[in-house]
Amino acid sequence: MLEGKAMVEDTDMPAKMQAQAMSAASRALDRFDVLDYRSIAAHIKKEFDTIHGPGWQCVVGSSFGCYFTHSKGSFIYFRLESLRFLVFKGTAA
Questions:
Q1: Which residues pair with 11 in a beta bridge?
Q2: In contact, 15 and 73? CB cutoff 8 Å
Q3: For 31-88, what is each residue's pLDDT tens digit?
């Protein structure tokens, strides 16, 4: 398991779901090369789709901008090691 500690930047997720997101990110970083952002994001998205139902989105990288609408209680933005992670469940505006 990766040794670094995740730091939450912003969230409206329940604490248990936050822990699941950070654990999923840690497992993905153990499994994939740190520069394979797409595989890392896909791993986290698929895990959340399985646990919490379909419709989850995940963005991973060292620098990115975004603008999105999310379902209440389904958003987290955190950092782990040198990467930033954005996980949310989309919704129609």
A1: 76
A2: no
A3: 999 999 999 999 999 999 999 999 999 999 998 888 888 889 999 999 998 999 999 9
Helices and strands (H and E) in the chain: how many: 2, 4
Residue 2 corresponds to which tokens in the numbers above? 């990766």
Residue ranges making up the domain that contains 63: 8-90
**Residue with structure tokens 């779901």?**
17
Coil vs helix vs strand at 68: coil
DSSP H helices in the chain: 15-31, 37-52
pLDDT one-digit tens code per residue, 70-82: 889 999 999 998 9
Please state, in angstroms and rounded to a whole number, the distance separating the CA atoms of residues 87 and 8: 12
Is the overall model pTM greater than 0.70, yes or no? yes
Q: How far apart are CA 9 and CA 91, in angstroms?
A: 22
Count up the domains in the chain and report the number: 1
